[in-house]
């Protein structure tokens, strides 16, 4: 029956893209879907029963948002199948250690998040949800038609039954373990010759360099960036080498959140979720997303605040979609740099978003090929760049640009020290702008 669900979801996803004539029609339909979800999950989730209390289901937007920590603390009573957190973690950790990702709890897929925010989480996906996810992602991300032949090469730190559910007669799916050496990946790719290449930007960069050297011979019809922030520097290099636009899928433990259209614009998947916005600036550009996913019933996501900083696109996309468009995924909240205020150092902190740091460094010189900026403490930045042997010649320019960007925010100028550039290992996510301490550690 899962194949029937997959095909039905594929067709419905294609059909729904033309269902609504106005934004208000879309939002009214979303409300109906949320109410349908609540009727299904409230009797089966003690956590949400208690959270709603005397609140009526149609007042769901009045619920205080939850986060990953609260979800993990209440995992056993939040999921609707009564699966205990300890059992789920045991299955997930065994899969990590053995690199065999087929075990399930009954028919439920168990996945483990990478824990970029310092708090590892688990997710549960039932068989019908898994089939619906496969149908949605094929409809939104697969180039051409479903009945065409496709070979998908998928690079991630861990495989999952969720991903292999896209394997069908004319769709070949091959998992590439990020923990394996790049030489092995190049050999396998040349043999598999994928039509679709899906990988984190750090791996796409390595593959682009291999193609530039003539070692990698593949020419996929579509390249999709996942799992890490796609930095403009990496995006430009990968696009230049492969001679095509780089698409993105924005997905995490909390759901399948957004995907790029044919024009390269990230659109929120508002046919499966509601994304409320908790704005972070007066211009109402940057926001934390608060998610309610009406496609998930095993591990419900209702008013879940995600720790990502998103930037809303203000101009309409040429594709004409009514779905919210994102300018960029800027980074995580815990990568916002914190400095003492220039005039009130004892009482005020100044926040500098990752995009300001990124733009300051990239505007320094076109010779910069790769970089990393770490804030070690409020008084010290550690910067490393790769620039074809010109690194030391650029140090003072980089220092000046960063100091200028920080000063414009009214912050005290930190010390800036330079170190040699080193790439991250395959099992670790690349973060080009990263804060190395928490605010509680300095207050």
From TrEMBL:
Which Gene3D superfamilies does the UniProt record give?
Answer: N-terminal domain of ligase-like (3.40.50.12780)
* NCBIfam families in UniProt: aden_form_hyp
- Protein name as it appears in the record: Putative adenylate-forming enzyme
Its organism's taxonomic lineage begins at: Bacteria, Bacillati, Bacillota, Bacilli, Bacillales
């Amino acid at each position: 029956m899962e194949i029937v669900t997959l095909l039905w979801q594929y067709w419905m996803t294609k059909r729904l893209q033309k269902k609504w004539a106005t934004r208000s029609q879309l939002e009214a339909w979303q409300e109906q879907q949320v109410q349908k979800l609540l009727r299904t999950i409230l009797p089966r989730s003690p956590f949400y029963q208690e959270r709603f209390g005397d609140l009526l289901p149609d007042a769901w937007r009045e619920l205080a948002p939850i986060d990953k920590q609260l979800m993990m603390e209440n995992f056993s009573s939040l999921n609707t199948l009564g699966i205990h957190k300890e059992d789920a973690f045991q299955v997930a950790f065994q899969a990590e250690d053995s690199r065999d990702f087929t075990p399930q709890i009954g028919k439920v897929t168990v996945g483990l998040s990478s824990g970029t925010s310092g708090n590892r989480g688990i997710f549960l996906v039932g068989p019908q949800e898994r089939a619906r996810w496969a149908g949605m992602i094929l409809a939104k991300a697969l180039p051409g038609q479903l009945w065409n032949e496709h070979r998908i090469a998928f690079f991630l730190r861990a495989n999952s039954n969720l991903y292999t559910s896209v394997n069908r007669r004319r769709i070949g799916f091959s998992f590439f373990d990020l923990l394996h050496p790049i030489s092995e990946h190049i050999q396998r790719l040349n043999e598999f010759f994928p039509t679709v290449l899906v990988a984190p930007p750090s791996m796409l960069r390595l593959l682009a360099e291999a193609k530039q050297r003539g070692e990698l011979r593949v020419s996929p019809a579509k390249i999709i960036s996942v799992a890490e922030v796609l930095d403009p520097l990496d995006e430009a290099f990968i696009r230049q080498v492969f001679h095509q636009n780089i698409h993105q899928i924005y997905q995490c433990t909390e759901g399948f959140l957004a995907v790029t259209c044919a024009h390269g614009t990230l659109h929120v998947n508002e046919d499966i979720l509601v994304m409320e916005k908790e704005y972070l600036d007066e211009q109402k550009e940057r926001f934390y997303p608060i998610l309610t996913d009406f496609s998930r019933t095993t591990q419900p996501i209702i008013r879940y605040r995600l720790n990502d900083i998103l930037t809303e696109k203000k101009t309409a996309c040429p594709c004409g979609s009514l779905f919210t468009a994102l300018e960029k995924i800027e980074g995580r909240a815990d990568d916002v740099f914190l400095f003492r205020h220039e005039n009130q150092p004892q009482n005020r902190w100044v926040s500098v978003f990752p995009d300001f740091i990124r733009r300051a460094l990239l505007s320094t010189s076109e010779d910069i090929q790769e970089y990393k900026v770490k804030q070690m403490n409020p008084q010290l930045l550690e910067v490393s760049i790769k620039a074809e042997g010109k690194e030391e010649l650029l140090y003072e320019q980089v220092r000046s640009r960063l100091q200028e960007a920080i000063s414009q925010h009214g912050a005290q100028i930190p010390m800036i020290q330079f170190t040699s550039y080193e790439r991250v290992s395959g099992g670790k996510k690349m973060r080009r702008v990263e804060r190395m301490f928490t605010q509680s550690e300095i207050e």
